[in-house]
Design brief:
This protein has 514 residues and is an alpha+beta fold. 29% of the residues lie in helices and 23% in strands. The protein is built from 16 helices and 19 strands. Strands 1, 8, 9, 10, 11, 12, 13, 14, 15, 16 and 17 form an 11-stranded mixed beta sheet that branches. A 4-stranded antiparallel beta sheet has the order 4-5-7-6, with helices on one face.
């Protein structure tokens, strides 16, 4: 099903391009628009793995658009982040929250035509809970077990109460995979020829170049408007802009905002922006010199977030003071971290640092992954320099970030965009700041003690209040640097209707002819 070795000519034919390699992200001036019935998306990241439930790529929010084109989550999400039936039509707790009940949709089929069964759901959940599986959210899935099947109804015992369990069923790693097929072909076989139950099936794949999908005729949901979808992997934002200007792609996103403003007014093109659930942040690692509270707080107070949003992002962003964005359940607008360079100087002076004798460390960042990510870090480094912080910029790919974070080997400061499609504080502050979490850079005991009791808190009001208190403490200690909530720029050809998602996904199954 998946061809990993293709001729250059075949690659270009598949993408409908001419003259230049797909991986360059550019087409010749005479390039034609996509073939009728084909939707081409200039995508900002490569696809490192086809298994959406294991490995470091499974927690990359940006890749979920591709995964949700091919695989079905247990629970679906509407564009406004509200939950809706997916492969499960019903889900819930019993009265004392010691058991869960799941109802599997009837009539769903895998891409090979075989039916999706309750056994597939149970196997997927058990595999996700297995410490040997490599599922990075294993510590959520392992809290339920002892599943029993009765027709299309599945029940399970709650081993440890997880208040966000059903929210997670719509989020990272929450995909149902085919038990019989996977066990037959194994992990390597699945990587070479993946199948899911989603609206599209994999037709061809050239690593670092493109992924071609075909509509799944047996899909249980609405029939997609496009028979063929091509994801071109175009990691350079300038090349994504060129894709739209040349007519080589129909849709792109995450381009510089000044280019968005320019392209949206060009003949044949249209644009839209929407605040999404992603936030920009800088992880702080609990190593020197970040063990010094004065250094951490100075690094926070020296950043003029509004100036960054206004000047670099053309106003497309919402400055934030915690890891909760507006719309998240625990967002608390009363928590402030003021831009105060004089305060930053005085804090650094207490630790013996000044513009003449700066504290030095490395900050890591992506370049072109998000609009103006590198330029933003350049601006922050300039702001830091004025108060007595000398930061060296190190550029890395997003895949390197995940690998370094998993090994607790990030630099003292590291830029990242945190996606929280379910808007829950456990999936923002919780996983980002709780030491035992593999997604955490700050491993301090102070936060382990504060966040730990909140994981199993059954009183929802008390749980949310607890996270607000944690966010206030983090702001006072400077243990992370929240920057702003993203506004996603989307450019598409006129004649297309793109349904913007609050989670930032670009879902081809929701793109139609206007």
């Amino acid at each position: 099903m998946v061809s990993s070795v293709l001729s250059r000519r075949h690659v270009l034919q598949l993408a409908g391009a001419a003259a230049l390699p797909l991986s360059s992200g550019l087409l010749s001036g005479g390039a034609q628009a996509a073939a009728p019935g084909t939707l081409t998306i200039a995508y900002n990241v490569n696809l490192p793995s086809f298994d959406p439930t294991v490995g470091l790529s499974a927690v990359n929010p940006t890749i979920q658009s591709i995964y949700q084109s091919v695989f079905d989550p247990y629970v679906g999400q509407a564009p406004d982040l509200s939950f809706k039936p997916g492969l499960l039509t019903k889900w819930g707790w019993n009265a004392d929250r010691t058991k869960i009940t799941l109802e599997l949709r009837k009539g769903a089929t895998w891409h090979d035509g075989s039916p999706v069964t309750p056994e597939d759901v149970v196997w997927s959940l058990q595999r996700a809970a297995d410490t040997k599986s490599g599922n990075p959210i294993q510590f959520v899935w392992s809290k339920v077990g002892n599943y029993k099947i009765d027709g299309n109804t599945i029940t399970g015992d709650v081993k440890e109460f997880e208040p966000t369990l059903f929210k997670w069923m719509a989020f990272l790693t929450a995909y149902v995979l085919p038990k019989a097929y996977y066990e037959k072909v194994g992990a390597d076989g699945f990587e070479k020829a993946p199948i899911g139950s989603g609206p599209y099936k994999v037709d061809a794949f050239e690593r670092n170049a493109f992924l071609r999908l075909k509509a799944h005729p047996g899909y249980w949901g609405p029939k997609p408007a496009f028979e063929t979808v091509v994801f071109k992997f175009v990691t350079d934002p300038t090349s994504r802009v060129a894709e739209m200007e040349s007519g080589g792609s129909d849709v792109t996103f995450e381009i510089p905002y000044e280019e968005f403003d320019r392209l949206k007014n060009k003949p044949g093109l249209a644009g839209q922006t929407k605040p999404v659930s992603d936030i920009a942040m800088i992880f702080i690692t609990d190593i020197d010199p970040m063990l010094d509270r004065n250094v951490r707080l100075a690094a926070n107070h020296a950043i003029d977030k509004k100036a960054i949003v206004d000047r670099l992002l053309k106003g497309y962003g919402v400055p934030i003071a915690t890891l909760e964005a507006p719309g998240y359940a625990a967002f608390d607008p009363s928590i402030k971290v003021a831009y105060d360079p004089e305060l930053a100087k005085s804090l650094l002076a207490k630790s013996g640092f000044s513009p003449e004798k700066p504290v030095k460390f490395t900050i890591q960042t992506t370049r072109g992954f998000k609009p103006k990510d590198y330029e933003m870090i350049q601006a922050i480094v300039g702001m830091w320099r004025k108060v007595g912080i000398e930061a060296n910029i190190e550029v890395y790919e997003i895949a390197q970030h995940f690998e370094l974070r998993a090994r607790h080997a990030l630099a003292p400061a590291a830029f990242y965009n945190w996606g929280n499609a379910i808007g829950d504080p456990s999936t923002s502050t919780g996983f980002a700041m709780f030491g035992p979490s593999p997604h955490c850079a700050w491993k301090g005991k102070d936060l382990v003690e504060r966040i730990g009791p909140l994981w199993g808190e059954k009183d929802e009001a008390k749980r949310i209040a607890g996270y607000k208190a944690v966010d206030k403490y983090i702001a006072e200690e400077g243990e992370v640097i929240p920057l702003f909530q993203y506004v996603q720029p989307i450019i598409h050809k006129k004649g297309l209707k793109v349904v913007a998602q609050a989670n930032g996904m670009i879902l081809p199954q929701l793109i139609t002819q206007a």
